[in-house]
Amino acid sequence: MTDRRAVRETYDRIAEHFARTRAYAWPEVEAFVEASPEAGTALDLACGNGRHAGLLARRADRVVGLDASRAILGTARERAANEGFSLDLLQGDAAALPLREDSVDLAVYVAALHHLPTPTLRRASLDDLARVLAPAGRALVSVWSVTHSAFDEREGFDTTVDWTLPDGTTVGRYYHVYDPEEFEAAVEASALDVERVYESEGNCYAVGTGTE
């Protein structure tokens, strides 16, 4: 898969079922957000159904949720309404963010970078996240890791994992599964100023800031 449109089309197809299976925020994301200073604008990049946007709403005056899939944004809108928090939604490309430079104080980019189908796009996405972060802004990025119990591999690899809909239809989802050293090298090579890289529960995480 080299066409990022396929990522959008995949999530348009599975949006409603996907949203029902993503009820809770990850504890690693909750810990990051709670440890961050209060923010003016927060970004939930590749927001999905908005399960982490509610956390951001507790710390920020404004929360922007961006995703490539219009259908998945509809589930985020519904969640925000049900939970009573304000969420500005944008359909857009994670590798070319429709946001101003230095406009974001706090960001989470959870379990989505690994869906971008080429190294060039993944690097562009990290660089553009750095561009929109304010100099003191903080971001948490997570990807799937070979340390996950689902994998036997020890080096990064590309794969397709089927999503099974209630009617039995399967929809393939592309992943680049990172090994931890590869992920650390990728974020260090990007425009982010990297504070910390670590592993937890089969995922790699990086905390970074915008550049001065």
Automatic annotation (TrEMBL):
GO molecular function: methyltransferase activity
InterPro entries listed in its UniProt record: AlkB_tRNA_MeTrf/Diox, Methyltransf_25, SAM-dependent_MTases_sf
EC number annotated for this UniProt entry: 2.1.1.-
Pfam family, one: Methyltransf_25
Keywords from the UniProt entry: Methyltransferase, Transferase
Residue intervals of the Methyltransferase domain: 43-137
Classification via SUPFAM superfamilies: S-adenosyl-L-methionine-dependent methyltransferases (SSF53335)
Enzyme class: transferase
Biological processes, Gene Ontology terms: methylation
Highest taxon above the source species: Archaea
UniProt name for this protein: Class I SAM-dependent methyltransferase
